[in-house]
Amino acid sequence: MSTRTRTAARAGQYLALLCYLVFLAFPFVWLISTAFKPAPELGSLHPTWIPEHPTLDNFRAAFDEQPLLRAAANSLIAALSAGVIAVVIATPMAYVMARHRSRLSTAATGWVVVSQAFPFVLLIIPLFLVLKHLHLINTLWGLIMVYVVWSLPFALWMLVGYVRAVPPELEEAAAVDGASRLRTLVSVTAPLLAPGIVATALFAFITAWNEFFFALVLLKTPEKQTLPVVLTHFLGAEGASDLGPLAAAAFLATLPSLVLFAVIQRRITGGMLAGAVKS
User: pTM of the full predicted structure?
Assistant: First the structure.
């Protein structure tokens, strides 16, 4: 392949990546713009990208109309608990499945993948009946259990890949040096799995933070409702919406995921690079 052809191919790749980024960023940029627009600009026939007279009135109205702080606290409790519990359960299971391959582990891995194809509608009735029997309907703990069950298969599938990426020779070398099985797992395997564990926990957190359907069905009391459910309260009859406060509340709802990923992504990348170095 000539130099000119390689340059053209590279330029095409960057152009495709730029188009994809614009496609992803457009809804978020428009959301931010809408959140800061006053009412006259929201109803204008000639919308603008940048608000001509930016205002915080939409944010004030959003907090006045709905209990956003309480809903955000409920979402935070549910998402953090689900992320931690899912990782604690999935990590040892993933290690066993990756290190001790058998027909059972292969079947379990296949079931993990297949389970992600089940739609929510098929699961909500059995889950509702189980939670009702346990007296966990309309409780955050019941919702957390559902989130753990729902995110656990994919979390397990992710962690199995990370465990298989850790060379078994490192554990064998530690055993030759006299390290116990527990010491090997804590001192050798766990640091190399840290990026995968963090990435999996982040996935479980974002999944639970953005989830709407289970929260809508299982939580009936307004004091227990999560942020995605409360956002629907800005929608009126026949699809009418209070667009300004809705955009402001939706913008605030996206911030935790963005901030969390921005804080953790360097550690994820750094850990991956550290684990890739062979001595």
Answer: 0.80
